[in-house]
Design brief:
alpha/beta; globular; binds 6-O-phosphono-beta-D-fructofuranose; 44% helix
């Protein structure tokens, strides 16, 4: 009875949600409660919680506009405080020992130093007031509890349930279902399957061991798992467990990505994972059909080839589509749920299946343990000790008050090379919005442009701009111990120390800069001084962790998920929908129809002359220029040949030589 399920409380964390019941809507005994003027509206029902989820959000209540956060006194105080901060320089602020003592925190070995942000104790006080005005804690609770806070899609946001324990006394229920119970059922299935594949009791169609994994997916169905894979590749335990296995990702619908992915793979030893929450994403589904054909071409057009070589990770609501594809939905379908957003899905089967197949389930479990640890820290630590909260509030401060438009993620760890790309989707798809939850246009800046590269590579690429061009807040991430350190004979420091010297030097260079006087003292000629002056005062934060293990990667995953949520909660956005990607998808579908007309000799007409000209040029150029290889193979030999897939020659590693060229044969219609 300690669970949340029996609670008959239905809370919505919007400050002034208004509930209206249309005359034809079913009525439930309920009462409205309001906590304070800006408090949480709570509906208490006398039925079970599942009743809550029968409520149709469109017809049972509507949102009335709520004042923009920019109209609050807390916001105004921060605006005038920003004016005061503009007068201060980081090189002076950094000399203050009290401030330095205040602006760092530590959790479970993770050390966050934010003394190089353009903040003071007063900034923190004001941000804390803003967080409380925006009901940050209440919104977090609603998320963890499973309220349908992604209300435009009528979905709960429960990526935290993906790493919850069965013993957890406060397990969220959605539509009457125990989410954690369901999560653990799928995890068990992943464990059994991955162990059977790794022990060889599940083999491919021709009896060979499945040792190559190709994960087909895009966006959140790709970036998180790839990031995780890159981290574990050189993690000592990961390296050992992955011996003899390969994992590749096929994401882009570009046929060249297929070519690169399949190069030198033996299909008889390859397991394909189709990762798509919706199982409808155009790019993924074409790549899925391409991989299915690749397998059929080698092993014959037998439904069993698909059943033995292709598995799916998709949402439960896509079950029919998975079955229709030919996948064994009883044994080879690893579900997740509509309450897991794509960019928040790496802890679901989306990450669990590929990672467990290559590294073993136990290592993936350690990732979950790390993420759970960060979830608990986020929920329970006071604001000043709460790493995701501090990072999120500083994001709000930098974007909305100091007016920085960008932010860069700079891991001083090669194994984190795909973290910037993961964060880019996580944050930009979540907070790249122009309206508040109640649909009003924001009149304040939200959502940074996120980019990054591992240090020190970035230093020899875009750091020139960071130091002398547009200022961009920087997040430095480093580790005390390397996954693999090296000490070259005759060197005073290890290679990891060399790397980390840069990690420590760059934030000070950005903060302090270098002025004309110093340059003069160094003998720099006068004419060069303007070119060599660094203004400094460029903010950054430094996150220092003990060592990049699976557990720490889990913490990093959850930390950034929560940072993104904090910013969205304070900005009053719905950070969990992504309607912005729909228009492009729809137009691409329209263009496909037009291209089909062009390919069969028709004239393409679009709704503007530029597009009409461009598309006709694309089709005509192909027809009139057969001097490149693609033109020859595609257009000389008739329709079937037109879509032939080329595979490389000379794959000597295979006992059975794959044919040099594959054609669609009889199953061309399935592509
Ligand atoms: O790009 C839009 C998007 O919906 C992302 O949010 C998602 O991660 C990606 O496409 C892939 O979607 P799916 O997993 O349904 O194939």
């Amino acid at each position: 009875m300690g669970l949340w399920r029996p609670s008959l409380l239905f809370s919505l964390c919007a400050s002034t949600w208004a509930f209206t019941t249309p005359t034809n809507a079913p009525t439930y005994p309920h009462q409205l409660k309001a906590r304070g003027t800006d408090g949480i509206a709570t509906v208490e029902t006398s039925k079970t919680l599942s009743l809550k989820n029968q409520i149709n959000y469109d017809s049972d209540f509507t949102l009335s506009p709520i004042p923009l956060v920019s109209t609050t006194s807390e916001w105004a105080a921060l605006i005038s405080h920003a004016d005061a901060i503009e007068k201060l320089h980081l090189k002076d602020l950094l000399q203050d020992p009290e401030r330095s003592e205040l602006l760092h925190t530590e959790h479970d070995g993770i050390f966050l130093d934010y003394s190089r942000q353009r903040v003071t104790a007063e900034t923190l006080d004001l941000l804390e007031s803003l967080a409380s005005k925006q009901q940050l804690r209440e919104k977090m609770d609603a998320m963890f509890r499973g309220d349908k806070i992604n209300f435009t899609e009528k979905r709960a946001v429960l990526h935290t349930a993906l790493r919850a324990r069965l013993e957890d006394p406060r397990r969220p229920f959605v539509d009457g279902q125990d989410t954690v119970e369901e999560v653990h059922q799928v995890l068990e299935k992943v464990r059994d399957f991955s162990e059977a594949v790794r022990f060889g009791s599940i083999t491919g169609y021709t009896g060979k061991q499945l040792r190559n994994v190709v994960s087909v997916g895009i966006g959140g169905s790709y970036l998180g798992p790839e990031f995780l894979h890159e981290c574990l590749k050189t993690e000592p335990e990961g390296m050992n467990s992955a011996l003899g296995y390969t994992l590749r990702f096929l994401s882009n619908v570009d046929p060249v990505d297929v070519e690169r992915t399949c190069s030198e793979l033996d299909p008889e030893e390859t397991l394909v994972i189709i990762v798509s929450k919706t199982f409808t994403t155009a790019e993924t589904m074409l790549n899925a059909r391409t991989m299915r054909q690749w397998l059929w071409d080698f092993m014959g057009n037998d439904p069993d080839v698909v059943r033995k070589h292709i598995v799916a990770c998709a949402s439960t609501s896509a079950t029919d589509k998975v079955r229709d594809f030919g996948i064994d939905t009883d044994n080879r379908f690893f579900q997740f749920w509509d309450w897991v957003g794509g960019r928040y899905s790496v802890c679901s089967s989306v990450g669990a299946v590929p990672i467990s197949l290559i590294y073993g389930f136990d290592l993936f479990q350690k990732v979950l343990n790390g993420a759970r640890n960060m979830d608990r820290h986020f929920l329970s630590a006071p604001l000043r000790e709460n790493i995701p909260m501090i990072m999120g509030l500083i994001g709000v401060w930098n974007t909305s008050f100091l007016k920085y438009k960008m932010r860069t993620t700079l891991p001083y760890a090669e194994a984190l090379l795909r973290l910037p790309a993961h964060i880019q989707q996580l944050d930009m798809e979540s907070n790249g919005k122009h309206v508040t939850r109640s649909g009003q246009d924001v009149d304040y800046d939200v959502g940074e442009v996120d980019f990054g590269e591992p240090g020190t590579n970035g230093q020899h690429s875009f750091f020139q701009l960071l130091h002398m061009g547009q200022p961009v807040p920087c997040d430095f991430i480093g580790f005390i111990k390397s996954q693999h350190d090296l000490m070259v004979d005759g060197e005073k420091l290890s290679s990891h120390d060399e790397l980390m010297s840069n990690f420590f030097a760059q934030p000070d260079a950005l903060a302090n800069g270098k002025n004309a006087d110093t340059l003069r003292k160094e003998g720099v000629p006068e004419w060069q001084i303007p070119h060599r002056t660094f203004h400094g005062n460029r903010p950054s934060m430094s996150l220092l962790l003990p060592k990049l293990t699976a557990y720490r990667v889990g913490q990093i995953i959850a930390l950034y998920e929560h940072r993104t949520a904090v910013q969205g909660f304070v900005w009053d956005l719905n950070s969990f929908d992504q309607w912005g990607v729909e228009l492009g998808k729809k137009l691409a579908a329209d263009v496909k129809e037009k291209l089909a007309v062009g390919r069969s000799g028709g004239q393409i007409k679009c709704d503007n002359p530029s597009s009409t000209r461009l598309l006709n040029h694309y089709v005509k150029f192909c027809e009139e220029n057969d001097d490149d290889e693609r033109g020859e193979s595609l257009f000389k030999e008739g329709k079937k040949e037109k879509f032939a897939v080329q595979w490389p020659k000379g794959q000597n590693a295979f006992s059975k030589q794959p044919p040099a060229t594959h054609h669609l044969k009889d199953h061309g219609k399935m592509l």
